[in-house]
Amino acid sequence: MPTSIPYDPSLVLGSLVQKPILDNLIAIGKLQAPLDNKQESLNSLILGKRSLTMTMNELGNMGVDTKNLQAEIKKMDQSISTAATDYGKAFSKAIPQIAAKKASIIAVDESIESPIDYNKSQIKKMPLSSDSLKMDAQYFSFDENTQNASNTVAQIKAYVSAQTSFLGTKRSAEATAAAATQVSKQLQNHDVEGTLIITAACTHKEAALLAPFIIDVDKGIRVWNKLKPKSLIKIDDVGSMQKISKQEGTPNEESINIISGATYGSSFVGMVHILKSESTSSSQKMVSMASSLQAQMETGGWFSNAQGGFGVDASFAHDVKNMLSSQQISSHVSLVTMGAIPTIKSGTVQLGVKQFTDFDPAKMMDKLATLANSTAAAQSSVAQSAQAARTGQQMLAIRNSEIKSVMTGLGDIADGENKMLDINTLMTAFEDYVTKAIAGELGVPINYYLKPITAAQLAQMWVAKYYPKQYLTISGDDSPSSNGQGPSPAPAGN
């Protein structure tokens, strides 16, 4: 992925240039350049293969022979693999070096005030550069939902049937259905994983220049004397001024540099990784102890028979539901922008668990009764079924031989919501960044215009200011007085 633009906050328009800081930024830029070039080469190969593949498919639909084209596309696979390997090696080698260089960049620094006269200087915007955008985006999404259920009834039914066999075949079957422990289990897992990486680098055509560039010569001399204690400019010593003048244009002439202009660029490097995992484990049990139903079974059977009913009341079974639901969300967001502060908007994540959609005890008893009736009908003999068919309700129950599931469904229940940064956050930030980049009111310097100021220039400007039109002076800035247009000298004796 492309690296962000190297930038040091101590280098701003109009400031004095500290050579080690500027050299460090240039060194970082030189280390980053091969990485960006190798990635651009890799992306070009990938784009080329996709384009040729689409062309091959189009030609195939037209009936054109694409055998040779397929061979060339096959050759590109090795080129892509080689380019990706080279990029990986260069990245792993350069990143530690870049990190070491960036370690010397500090957010807070101090520097001597610039000698620029800000009251007279102005900042002009001129289209000296050009607008450009280089973007790369990668997106990965994975969504998996698994469900499984198990139902273990047979063994428990056999146990209850054996324990209530003394009641007779029919009553034992009824007790087996009503008192059986049915265990239904369901497990649901839902995993969502998404990763989005967006990188972009822009250059902007608007350059900022100090024009007119005006220096306060008195402040300039004080700054020079602070930075160059071995080459002081003594305004009260004519000999010092003469010595400084003789050094003009010589190899030994010293200077200080001021940033008088800059072209700008911006960069956007962002990544979001979201992992959301939901797990729900539910079980449902109908529990009834057969040993406690011996006397009640006979009474219940007599009541049911007298009323024209069938079997025993399903309320002898006890409905127990157990459920465990958990939700885990992790988010990793990284965003580095240079030259712009995009809008950051959080997304809303719903927190919730599962609930049983049919938790009415009466409805559950109806289901148990249906299960009991259908099971009894399946296990009863022909003679017993004929005897039990004395009423229409018994006939209806016997004919209903289909066993219905008693496993209730699961539904979502909202438990709350939280704010978090997600993939939509990164997309919103990127769209806002592009909008600001088009407007052009952003950027960090990517190219500095340095204006060297020498001791001879400061001395000549000082003479032009205090002894106007008396000596030949050379312009050291854009001040009109440096060109002999200053005010007339004061009358003698004043």
**Share of residues in helices:** 25-40%
Average pLDDT rating: 75
What's the alpha carbon Rg, rounded to whole Å? 43 Å
Largest sheet: 6 strands, antiparallel
Which descriptors apply to this entry?
40% helix, 494 residues, disordered C terminus, 12 helices, 8 strands, Helix Hairpins
Describe the SSE topology.
Elements: H1 19-61, H2 67-102, E1 123-127, E2 132-152, H3 154-163, H4 169-179, E3 182-210, H5 217-227, H6 238-246, E4 255-287, H7 294-306, E5 318-338, E6 347-356, H8 361-379, H9 382-388, H10 392-399, E7 410-420, H11 423-439, E8 444-454, H12 455-466
Antiparallel strand pairs: 1-3, 2-3, 3-4, 4-5, 4-8, 6-7
Helix pairs in contact: 1-2, 3-4, 4-8, 5-12, 6-12
Task: Describe the model.
The structure is a single chain. Among the domains are: 19-110, Orthogonal Bundle (Helix Hairpins), CATH 1.10.287; 137-197 and 268-438, no CATH class. 40% of the residues lie in helices and 29% in strands. It has twelve helices and eight strands. The radius of gyration is 43 Å and the shape is elongated. The two termini are 71 Å apart.
